[in-house]
Amino acid sequence: MNKKKKLVKILLIFALAVFVCGCSKSTDEKVETQKEQKADFSEKEKSKEADTETKEDSIEESIVSEENIDAYQNSSSENDTDLGLKNMKVDYAQGELSEEQKQIIEYFSRDYMFVNSGEALQRYNNIFDHALIRCYVNVIKVISYEGNDYELLVSIMENSNETDDQLLNESRYMIIKGATQESRFIQGDFLLIEGRYNGVVQETVDGISLTVPEIAVHGGYVLQEDDGWYFYPSRFSMLEVKNIAKSVFGEDITISEPDPNVDPVDSEMPYYVCTLDNQSNAKFSRYYFNEREGSITDAEHGYQIEFAADFQHFFLVMYDYSLETLTLEYYDNNLNKIWKREFEATTSASYDFTKNNVYLCANNELYILNIENGEDTYDSSYVGNKLDIRKFNDGILLVSAEKSDAFLYTDLSGQIVWKVDAKEKISLISTIQEVDGKLIIQVVNNENMEYNEFEGELTGSNEYYYVIDRQDGTLIHEGTVDSVEFHQYS
Fold first, then answer.
1. Where is this chain compositionally biased, Basic and acidic residues type (predicted)?
2. Distant-in-sequence, close-in-space partners of 174: CB < 8 Å, separation ≥ 6
3. pLDDT tens-digit readout, 326-384
């Protein structure tokens, strides 16, 4: 029982971290789950319904359209119809991505919505259909493996202290499809998966017809086990981090574990250390690469590195909190500085990038900067303090903390197109996704949030989902996902 309480706590903390900031921050809490499954399935008899295949084809077409590709190819600084880098996904871009570029996009992706209920996926289709989601699952059956491509029958974990009977409840079942690289998933594995929800499909397994959610998996990670305890998995290996680091700094680098005599050891946010062979530039000496969520931070000063949308350049983001200034520098992959801009009265900023422009909210102003020289493409405009900014093909989304005009959409020059209010103030943004012409925005109000460690419960935190038509600002859905139906951790 104590071990199960531990598991409740670890997954509760993880769920909070995902809902609150899109990051996972629970690792050295040990967890135990049921390791043996009592399922006894016969040999597979699988048949797909023709309408399901048609549905999958239409989903794929909706992700990358010819219109989006044309917009990318014909864009310019003044008519920037590019999709911002923050909105690019491994299955949603304006052109073909290399494996290296996909890895970089996945490293920095923060938009997966944490879900722990198959019922919620089916009930709240306006929110979840075709959206990016993250969840814990238990592998019930390996349906097929062809090369590295797999199809698995899994059970979604609604709570952490699951029993065999709960895991084998057909209402929990889902189909997941993806590809493994180094080692295969097997029956009984406990996984953290991230991917795109394809909706409900019909699947026949062992002669039994199932109507279940299906997820196209982008990344699957086996929970690490030690003597019956499970640990939150690393999303990126040292080799993968090294490849990403080479994209920034080139070949002359060394990747290592943190040195406890020099580096802070954070078990909840583990990282690798990248040391440049050439130490002549103090700005490019040693950097921390988080192994779970995408962040690249200077070890000495806390500077941040962000990739440019062409994957051939990068930005160095530097705050001076004593002077309240932001310095933005733009570099090529040979560490040559191309331009520099400074912004006063700024201690925080939000930004997005295309191959043409930088979109930056700083000191209550919206700046649109030409990527080639850092000069203003358009004059800056007052927009107030913003928590996030996203660049879409036809405009810019700005999200603020205040209830009034919380969601503001402008045209390509920064002129307001529509505004939508929020039900409560916004403390943090968990996800912003564009799905089938809709904006899916999950936010958190945690002004009164408290965590009772003894009871293992969260109180005072509210998650709200907003579904907004991107073209005209029509509010399609607003509200919470019911706690009973959603089976939140308790």
1. 29-57
2. 118, 137, 153, 154, 155, 156, 212, 213, 214, 215
3. 999 999 988 999 999 999 999 889 999 999 999 999 999 999 999 999 999 999 999 99
Q: Could you tell me whether strands 428-435 and 325-332 are parallel, antiparallel, or unpaired per DSSP bridges?
A: unpaired
Reading the block at residue 198, the tokens are 């394809």
**Which CATH superfamily is 113-222 part of?**
Nucleic acid-binding proteins (2.40.50.140)
User: How long, in residues, is the chain?
Assistant: 490
Q: How many CB atoms neighbour CB 271 within 10 A?
A: 22
CA distance 403 to 98: 41
Cβ contacts of 292-296, under 8 Å, gap ≥ 24 = 292/23, 292/24, 292/232, 292/234, 292/235, 292/236, 293/22, 293/23, 293/24, 293/110, 293/235, 293/269, 294/107, 294/108, 294/109, 294/110, 296/248
Kindly tell me the burial class for residue 440, based on how many C-beta atoms sit within 10 Å of its own C-beta (0-12, 13-18, 19 or more). Answer: buried
pLDDT for res 8: 37
Phi, psi of 7 (to 5 degrees): -65, -40
Higher pLDDT, 372 or 40: 372
Which residue has tokens 């530039």? 281
pLDDT in tens, 86-140: 999 988 876 778 888 999 999 998 899 999 888 889 889 999 999 999 999 999 9
Q: Say if residue 22 is exposed, middle or buried (CB neighbours under 10 Å; 0-12, 13-18, 19+).
A: buried
Q: Which of 9-23, 130-144, 262-276, 292-306 has the lowest mean pLDDT?
A: 9-23
Token pair for 415:
């002129």
CB atoms closer than 10 angstroms to residue 416: 14
